[in-house]
């Protein structure tokens, strides 16, 4: 993803908004792609308890915190975003697994 204008090159609020909108569109596309993998994981798992893996969650959060720090992004905010995303995914996976196992 290449910026049309770097932040320092934005001279107006509209310039900044165009870049934020471009990034937001890319983020939604990435979240949709990620969601496909989360859905597939839910199809592979056989027990709703598998959706919550505390050791894996902590490893993921640690990686994202380190990455945020390397990118000069507030690591606490990055952690909050990822924990929220993970919590949502856990609930989503559990729902799929439970619905599938009830049909049997």
UniProtKB/TrEMBL annotation:
UniProt-listed Enzyme Commission number(s): 5.4.99.5
Residues in Chorismate mutase domain copies: 7-97
A Pfam cross-reference name: CM_2
Enzyme class: isomerase
InterPro entries in UniProt: Chorismate_II_sf, Chorismate_mutase-related, CM_dom_sf, CM_II_prokaryot
Alphabetically ordered keywords of this record: Isomerase
Coiled coil: none
Statement: the UniProt record of this protein carries the keyword Membrane: no
Protein name per the record: chorismate mutase
Natural source organism: Pelagibacterium nitratireducens
